[in-house]
Write a structure and sequence with these properties.
Layout lengths: L1 H38 L1 H22 L5 H11 L5 H16 L12 H30 L5 H39 L12 H18 L2 H10 L5 H6 L1 H15 L5 H25 L5
Helix pairs in contact: 1-5, 2-5, 2-6, 3-4, 6-7, 6-11, 8-11, 10-11
């Protein structure tokens, strides 16, 4: 009897061992990815903060403001040989103007820059290692799935990844730049001067990007629950007017700001994704209405 009980426990123990090994392999891949990200941390920071710089530069151009730091530097070069003291004063003024450049992000705490770089490297390592981690999870669970379940996952998983990447691309090239441009330009420039900290910008950026990666899964969620028989195409069409309002509520929840422009920019793709979900349900789900 003891031998039979031991044999019954062995498969479970074997699977736990396999799961532990696959988690360890993924963690090792994550650590390697993190080290690579550390090597290129300056490039990653440049890439992440590019939308802010573009928004700030666009703001200056729209206001017709000139780059006075460049003009001061040119004037200083002309006086370099004739008046060294004035040259050094102008260079100091140029550096001060550069520091006040709205395209540069401020650091208010000693540890803020270090923690910000670490957060970016961790996020990059997670994104790089995510496909490998999903593959390891798939290898673990696929042994216990039926053929039709494997087929469904093989179909839905790449689609989910494409939607997630699509959300990140939309956020990086559309939502974040336009939202930042609006927020930076808001207010009287004679009264307000943009002074954005690195930590606040990264919080804004990561929240928007993560929210978009999640909400872009909407068509897939609609397809799955329709395949399960929970909803039908006719029901989805009936709730369309309510979803139009709900899209703005969802956008308000997921966006870290309260401005209507950023929320609208998120609500519009949500509405389009809802329509895409209806189309996919029509195409792939055959069920009695």
């Amino acid at each position: 009897m003891a031998t039979e009980a031991q044999d019954d426990r062995m498969p479970l123990w074997y699977h736990l061992q396999e799961l532990r090994w696959r988690i360890i392999v993924w963690l090792l891949f994550f650590v390697v990815s993190f080290v690579v990200a550390l090597v290129f941390q300056n490039e990653l920071m440049w890439l992440v903060t590019l939308p802010h710089r573009k928004a700030a530069e666009g703001l200056l151009k729209s206001r017709g403001e000139e780059d006075y730091a460049v003009k001061v530097e040119r004037a200083a070069e002309k006086l370099k040989e004739n008046d060294k003291e004035l040259y050094e004063a102008l260079i100091a003024l140029k550096d001060e103007l550069k520091r006040r450049d709205p395209s540069r992000l401020a650091v208010l705490k000693y540890e803020e820059a270090f923690l910000s770089y670490m957060k970016i490297c961790l996020a990059a390592a997670f994104l790089i290692s995510l496909p490998f981690g999903i593959y390891q999870l798939w290898r673990f669970v696929s042994a216990g799935l039926y053929s039709h379940e494997k087929k469904a996952i093989r179909t839905f998983l790449p689609f989910s990844f494409v939607l997630f990447v699509g959300g990140l691309v939309f956020g990086y090239f559309v939502l974040v730049p336009i939202g930042l441009r609006f927020l930076l330009a808001y207010g009287d420039p004679e009264t307000l001067a943009p002074f954005i900290t690195l930590g606040f910008y990264l919080s804004f950026f990561t929240t928007i990007m993560l929210a978009l990666g999640i909400v872009f899964q909407l068509p897939l969620v609609m397809l799955i629950i329709a395949a399960m028989g929970i909803v039908t195409v006719s029901w989805l069409k009936r709730i369309r007017p309510y979803f139009l309002v709900g899209a703005f509520i969802i956008a308000a929840v997921f966006t870290p700001t309260t401005d209507g422009v950023t929320q609208t920019l998120l609500a519009i793709p949500l509405i389009l994704l809802f329509e895409l979900g209806i189309i996919l349900v029509k195409m792939f789900v055959r069920r009695e209405e």
